[in-house]
């Protein structure tokens, strides 16, 4: 049995469920998904400030996941908050959903487009493209200009805007795949892939499969060098529980 | 049942067996590995000339694999010969072992080293790093200065040189993972990972798991845009069988 | 009167004093320095995990600084933890000491070297070089292989190692300036500049002068676009005080 | 007498004639052009699959050219198929027409535009820009959306589309030169240069002059390092003639 | 008393006054601005030829400034003509206004736009972005298509075009700050910052504050390495006065 | 008859002769070389200050060359001083010797080394590599640590140091070609190419052949866009003769 912890870094339980369902839909027979979210933090993540707070929640959860014996971790927010910090804490692999979706996109297309929520989050995607090495693989970035939680309001408006933006990207960008830029869009990927006739990639499911792959390969986060365990030191105040 | 075709682009059957074994060792329960090599071509691949010839063999095999109904393809030579051409031919995913190993390395370490065979092949690795976006993720490239087939001569000399070079890379490069730069080194990864206490990554097994992952995600090579099927045209002479 | 808040992101009061003194030593006549550190967090910052925790402390302090009416903020840890998040919170300028030192170095030399504490923090410096655009301006990165707090142990050993490393960098790197890679090295810069006969740059003092400069220019953090105020949303648990 | 072999990598004899004529039009008095094409392969090259096949034809011809004592070789397809492999085989210089045109463009303008045939080939041009170092020198890439052989259909439609696209590029791109992205456009360059009042560059003629230049300088392909002769090994099947 | 020499590299005295006024408007209490321009050269700088001539005037003035005991120098033309040459001549800091404005922009926004005069000068800005490391921080470059001296014709037309272009950049570029690309636009920055509600940055004032900052830090141009004093050698003819 | 003006940007007549001889040695039958140097300026060029002065001499000579009806111009100093300014002045091609040598090197090898005179000039070479796009094609830069004029002192010491450095580069750099980084080394290239068994490239001869090539192609400097003629304006003082 492989336990994979899928961490929704925000506190919205509806989104945790969406994400957990997307993860379970692709999990291998021997994989069990534990979908979690922090008990405290931000209800949605739409900027660097939100990300900084969410990163603490991610670390808390990684620590708990280790105690539960999980084999690997997914950070299910498109900004991959706390990714390298979580890797220091973890022995198994830790994969961000932006990272997973971008990697997958480069394996099935020469260039990809990104469709995300608010314009202000585009800079986060740009920085991740640079960090992961994919700046030149990204043909264009788009934002539907609706907040993250619009994806959970039940109206379907945000989903329709995502769809329209994907159609437009297909026509204009000259790219071969589309990366969905929010954990809350996870459930849209299969359908849009079918409708558009091109890969539309959700990072949650991609990250789950990458964690499974790395675990099967016997590859965890390297403990040689700069991702080694955090140096033991007394954490004070609200951070004591991370000791 | 998921059929994955693992293509050794050279004609050395011993290496095809090594590669096939490495692939089967990590294949998921529902995956069957078909390890093949071209009937004609080069016995080993150690430069651009060899790669150009090997690419034809890869295309032949991809075509045959499709006829057999395989779900995805692995190109098991560290130069990833014919990768984009094969993607045009394929509907499922096609993954090169350099590509797979480099991607995997960036998921478990901030920077990686490469250990390969002959110095003259380093330029091929450099070009792939650039194409895949990982130039800045590679801390150093090393060559053991032995030809590819030395890995199959039974003496163990090449294997020992790989080991020594890995140990040295660990000491000097400041990287967190090592990528083995030849399909013929596939069987060394697990043992060296254990001995060195850091991820030593074989691309054959990594590529198999990535193909499995993409297949499970319902993601094949994009047929929208520049990886679309080759435009139908009459191929003449020795290439007619690729029609 | 210009109030500049200098935030030591770790909880070591001795280091806060070192940093505060370095800041005051260069402050203009009309500038008052408020040197602070978080009440809770990590005693030193030597990796991504430490940085994630420290970022929260930085945000707390920025919020307090705004309430006090400060004109700008300095983040006095060489990893610039929480920089973009802090910029969302702030109306005045926010400058990290790595950022300030790197910028200053490119203004007085064509290429610079970095001398920092532990090797594991080099990756943080590398990522900042990439984010700020200075990858090609950095000739070499060095670590003295002592923890941050060794700079506060009174023995002078760490200081001597910094000096030796700077001398070696001068001989070998072909660079024209040296950037000191830790807030705790702030007091060494002037003396080493004199001894080496080349600019040795401390980020704390550099950041103070850059904040002063931006304030005098009437330039604060842009509130148009992706550094706009954080979107108002209920923060829960230990983060409520950041509302 | 300097013999220069101009290789049309596709099997269309009409295009071989176009290319040969363009080469002869600029050849120096002491230069003789041998325009050849493979006896087997693809009638036009419009993707990676076509290129992989064409590369074998290029290698065959380079081998024959060497036997004939030619001083240098031109690969007259805008994707420069088989370039590095051909360099391994050759002692004289080997120049691709994309390479030649891009180099020439950077010598007469700060930035250039590319006008090519099918949109799916743009990715090949992008990869060459990256390989040659000219990504930042290319202001824009355009495709007329007609296949390569439309240039040989006698209607003049493709030629008119090239002209229109060049005029548009002049108005919009902010570039100082235009690179024609297909060997079949070779004859258009002089006229368009005159009509547009800016350099419109054909790679066939540019490559011939570069080979002449390198030959006169006594510079052939380096046999020190990674472009050294292919390592001798038994080639089997359809590739035996390349031994 | 800190003397800062602000060099208008062209010979237009009206522009020297504009620039001097902008410099004095931000100078610290203890700073005295000496605004100068060459006695011979070009009346405005709108290309590489103009810049080459202007660079000599800059060097003359730097030499005079040193004789006057100035603490630092500003090169007040957006192409930063003669910057590295001037640094060889100077012991204090030398800052170009493009450099200063671009640095400042990256400190208050994640990406910036540039608004300059003639389209032909955009290439100069592009090269500076590359040299300073800010290519990826620049979202867009715009030209109002009026010559530099239109800013001094008293009609206000050029100023209005700058304003319109800034408004358009705010709407379209997705950037957080605007850099004004000409010394003659210095007086517009404060007002446009106010009107647009985002930082609009003038390099003259930014450079003055950066020189003040570096002087206060005790940092001058590095004389270790490649910015060392020019090697003494006999200068002949019109250049003798630079000896 | 094709007249090519080869401009030695420094005032050392011995070097002008060396350069002229190197140019004539490769000139085509129909080419006449006019080797010139400025009447006033610097006797050698070893830094940015020297380059700024030399650029004026280059512009003077280009202007004179145009009056003489030359077809193209070579700037025969490895820093390519005044290159873009000269292109504005010229209608024919203008090629710098660093540019020519670097371009040629990338046509015969995958990576090259540079061997130049003083270490302080290395930064100039680095900036040119970046401007021309060849940063990743340069494996290493070396300086013999002797001034330019040591190449003209008749002792042969500098020449021997160049030779030793080339031999060492061949052993250590993993590059396939060597670029000689000074016009005064022009005569060494052929001999060293022979001795080392790898291309050792002189920029003077390479530039002559590239000018010949561009002239034969009917390609001059683009007058569309940013290399258009300098905007006419009154030049004053010592620059009046450039009007």
From TrEMBL, chains A, B, C, D, E, F:
Superkingdom, taxonomy of origin: Bacteria
Matching InterPro entries: Asp/Glu/hydantoin_racemase, Hydantoin_racemase-like, Iso_Racemase_Enz_sf
Signal peptide: none
Family: Belongs to the HyuE racemase family.
PANTHER family with a match to the protein in the record: PROTEIN DCG1
Protein name per the record: Asp/Glu racemase
Lineage: Bacteria, Pseudomonadati, Pseudomonadota, Gammaproteobacteria, Enterobacterales
């Amino acid at each position: 049995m492989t336990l994979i912890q899928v961490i929704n870094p925000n506190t919205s339980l509806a989104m945790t469920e969406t994400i957990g369902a997307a993860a379970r839909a692709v999990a291998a027979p021997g994989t069990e998904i534990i979908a979690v979210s922090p008990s405290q933090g931000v209800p949605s993540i739409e900027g660097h400030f939100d990300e900084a707070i969410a990163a603490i929640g991610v670390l808390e959860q990684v620590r708990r996941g280790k105690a539960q014996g999980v084999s690997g971790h997914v950070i299910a927010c498109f900004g991959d908050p706390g990714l390298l910090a979580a890797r220091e804490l973890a022995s198994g692999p830790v994969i961000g959903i932006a990272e997973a979706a971008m990697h997958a996109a480069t394996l099935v297309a020469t260039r990809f487009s990104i469709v995300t929520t608010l314009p202000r989050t585009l800079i986060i995607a740009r920085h991740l493209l640079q960090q992961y090495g994919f700046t030149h693989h990204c043909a264009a970035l788009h934002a539907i200009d609706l907040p993250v939680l619009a994806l959970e309001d039940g109206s379907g408006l945000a989903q329709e805007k995502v769809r329209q933006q994907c159609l437009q990207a297909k026509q204009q960008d000259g790219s071969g795949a589309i990366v969905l830029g929010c954990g809350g869009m996870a459930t849209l990927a299969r359908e849009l892939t079918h409708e558009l006739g091109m890969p539309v990639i959700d990072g949650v499911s991609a990250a789950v499969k990458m964690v499974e792959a790395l675990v099967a390969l016997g590859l965890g986060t390297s403990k040689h060098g700069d991702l080694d365990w955090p140096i033991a030191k007394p954490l004070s105040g609200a951070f004591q529980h991370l000791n």
